[in-house]
Amino acid sequence: MPTSCTLGNQPQSLKENGMYFGIYDKQELMTSLTSIDGAFTVPIEALTSLNKSSLDGQFRTVDGSGVAALLEAFHQIHCVNLVRQYIYRHDWDYSKVASFSGGNKTVRHHVDHCIETIRMNIMCLSDVTPFLMEQDPRTPGQLRGNHNIVRKCRKYGAMVDWVKDNTVFMTAGK
Known about the structure:
Elements: H1 4-7, E1 9-13, H2 27-34, E2 38-43, E3 61-62, E4 66-69, H3 72-87, H4 104-125, E5 132-135, E6 143-146, E7 150-154, H5 156-165, E8 169-170
Antiparallel strand pairs: 1-7, 2-4, 2-8, 3-4, 5-6
Helix pairs in contact: 2-3, 3-4
């Protein structure tokens, strides 16, 4: 399984008006981040590290050597994209997007699930990088947070490459 040690790290800073910021021309870009649908094998002996002591349940095994898995990071990116699509649902036609089928109640439930997934991930990983306070030039005497800070992040491309190199079958529906 990939780890931050095997993937490496890279500095990354927040850029407002960056390539993922805003509404227009982002659909294909965001979809490219969520289209990684290759499953890989988690060896049976590694299940205890995932708090799974046995194969009880409906887990899909792969040639008896392990259990099929996907990386949670891709689910989380899917959730960010779904929340973004939901926010802009009146500006785009999502009628052919599977996540928007099933009626308003089903879609809202999916969005709520995604918000909970994102919240849990933030609380679990809790970025402790400080952001500095600065004078707000638009409002004299007021402070604002300068969120344009460099973070130490996993190399997303390396994670994608690892999954592609270790894919044992493709999942459907993404």
